Amino acid sequence: MNQKPVVKFRNAAICYADARGYKSAGRLLRESEMVLSGVDLEVAAGEFVYLIGRVGSGKSTLLKTLYAEVPLLTGEGHIAGFNLRRLRRRDIPYLRRRIGIVFQDYQLLTDRNVFMNLYYVMKATGWKRKAEIAERIEQVLRLVELENKSYKMPYELSGGEQQRLVIARALLNRPKVLLADEPTGNLDPVTADGIMQLFREIAKSGCAVVMSTHNTSLIENYPARAILFASGQIHEIDLEAELG
Asked: Is the pLDDT of residue 204 over 90?
């Protein structure tokens, strides 16, 4: 890769633990359960990368390590300019402003409409000027094709529209990396196809997309770089050869 990667692991051990490790890494290392070892991975700006493998193979734990839900206890790890080994608890909110996160369960504020769901996030992440906030919300809603539904409540949206709102929320702070954990798992095939097209456009804009999935039909329709998780290790695979 010619440019500095936006995600980088070197000889990292990914362990199942929680964010208390940012206070007591030594104790937690002894108590934690190793999920993956010897992890070497780089992702460049604008790349689309699949994380594939069986349930429980470590895909979600690696993503949680990237957004600092789980501490990195050994090895080297960087994302969006942050060193995961040196990350302090008080730095986590600043890291998350540099990345976007898309969950399978939408985690929307059910008592606020589309606009206010986004407004809340922007105020919480340091935006001050109302005109700039409104302009950015309009931009991301247009990108995800929800510009005419800013007044709708989350329960008035379809599953696909709710996921598009989650993606809009993830893009508010112009992230360098978008992390998506099984983002199409609750969607029908047609809706999932639309979400994948949106992810491809996001990657083309220069934001790296790292997506875990077990949906082989999506992978076939939208081939990209793929990392296989198996037996506590990861390795890159040739999708064309694997899919025949």
From this structure: yes
